[in-house]
Structure formats: C-alpha cells, structure tokens
Amino acid sequence: MREQVEAALNDIRPALQADGGDVELIDVVGDTVKVRLTGACGSCPMATMTLRFGVEKLLKERVPGVKQVMTA
Questions:
Q1: CATH number of the domain enclosing 29
Q2: What torsion, rounded to 10 degrees, do the Cα atoms 58, 3, 32, 41 define?
Q3: Model pTM greater than 0.85?
Q4: How far apart are the C-alpha atoms of 41 and 37, rounded to whole Å?
C-alpha cells in the first residue's frame, strides 16, 4: 500500500509545489496514512482544508484501504 500512496502523492505534489509547499509521507499504519505538509503548506491557514479536501480525498479515491489521513 505504501507504494500506491507514494504514487498518488506524486500526482498532487505539483499543485502543492506551485504554491511553495509539498507533502511528505511519514508512515502508513493499517488504514491510516500519516503525512507532513511542508514549506508554505506547513504554515498556511488553509492547510487543514488542503489536507482533507485535497490529499485525503485523492488518497481515498486512488488507494483502496485508505480510511484516514492525518498529519504527523
């Protein structure tokens, strides 16, 4: 599952990097993915929305078994 998560994150990275941020995969534990938003995304007031409606939505759609995405 970790490889599938990395592949999906690579698809969303260009959008985050365009705004000066990025996402880093920390761990996959069961059905939970732990990530860290970095750069401008790490301190952005919209980071929670980016995580929920961007990263989490993409991962749930693309990687079977992902139920939750949280920041580490």
A1: 3.30.300.130
A2: -50
A3: yes
A4: 5
Q: Count Cβ neighbours within 10 Å for each residue of 30-63 and write b for 16 or more, e otherwise.
A: eeebebebeeebeeeeebeebbeebbbebbbeeb
- What is the Cα–Cα distance from 39 to 44, expressed in whole angstroms? 9
Q: Would you give the DSSP letter of residue 63?
A: S
Q: What is the pLDDT of residue 72?
A: 83
The pLDDT of residue 43 is 85
Q: Which domain holds residue 59?
A: 2-71
CA–CA distance, 27 with 33 (Å, rounded to integer): 6
CA distance 4 to 1: 5
